[in-house]
Amino acid sequence: MEKGTVIEINADVVKGKIPAIQIHVDKKTA
């Protein structure tokens, strides 16, 4: 479930809609 959410958020990050979320995802992935 978490992986699916991360991928969905990644799509938004790639669009540059929520760059701040990228940091959150990086922390969770780390």
Describe the structure.
This protein has 30 residues and is mainly alpha-helical. The protein has one domain (1-30). The chain contains 2 helices and no strands. The radius of gyration is 8 Å and the shape is flat.
Largest β sheet strand count, sense and barrel closure:
none
Q: Give the averaged pLDDT, no decimals.
A: 63
**How far from one another are the termini?**
17 Å
Instruction: Return the domain count.
Output: 1
Structural class, from secondary structure content?
A: mainly alpha
DSSP summary, beta strand count: 0
Question: What share of residues are in beta strands?
Answer: under 5%
Which stretches are low in confidence, meaning pLDDT under 50 for 5 or more residues running?
A: none
How would you describe the shape? Answer: flat
Secondary-structure element string: HH
Level of helix content?
Answer: over 70%
Number of helices: 2
Any idea what the radius of gyration is?
Answer: 8 Å
Secondary structure elements and pairings:
Layout: H1 2-15, H2 19-29
Helix pairs in contact: 1-2
